[in-house]
Design a protein that fits this description.
single chain; 8 helices
């Protein structure tokens, strides 16, 4: 018995950027806001990769892993994001950002998502502006999560080729 998988030919949803052009403006504003220099871009990309892993989106995982690779990050660091807690490749500041990402995206069985202890740990590495930027960076990837999960763009394809064209365009 052989198992064959058929490569999808397009996303389930036509290009949301064409359907709702304002989405591009919001995305650009979020990118500008998170690029204010208070948090290294590498840290933001690491937390965005972790967010893609947590929500189970192959598209987002490959997108953010590719962004990290293109920025010169090592394969070790990229691969170890899923197991960052015991991987030796991350700074304490990066660990705090990854912990915040997990706390926001994974509700605990009991207690607060972001405990006072976690906040204190993060604030030891980031000032108020950087903490707000980290919150925006988690929100930035979450802005695109529903589109990625509902629209299911093709993992590994360029942005121009990932979406089914909008009918009539």
């Amino acid at each position: 018995m052989s198992i064959t998988t058929q490569e999808p030919t397009g996303s389930r949803l036509p290009n949301p950027g064409q359907l709702v052009p304002e989405m591009g403006e919001v995305g650009a504003a979020l990118f500008k806001a998170t690029g204010n220099g208070s948090v290294p871009r590498a840290t933001i990309a690491l937390l965005q990769l972790r967010a893609g892993q947590l929500v189970g989106s192959t598209y987002l995982v490959l997108l953010h892993a590719g962004n990290l690779r293109n920025a010169g990050e090592s394969e070790q660091r990229i691969a170890a994001v899923a197991t960052w807690q015991d991987a030796p490749f991350f700074t304490e500041a990066e660990r705090a950002a990854l912990a915040l990402t997990e706390a926001v995206l994974q509700p605990p069985a009991a207690g607060e998502r972001v405990s006072d202890e976690l906040y204190a740990r993060a604030s030891a590495h980031y000032d108020d502006k950087a903490l707000a930027t980290l919150a925006l960076a988690i929100g930035q990837v979450n802005f695109f999560v529903p589109v990625a999960l509902i629209g299911k763009p093709i993992p590994g394809r360029s942005p121009a080729d990932q979406w089914t064209p909008v009918a009539g365009q």
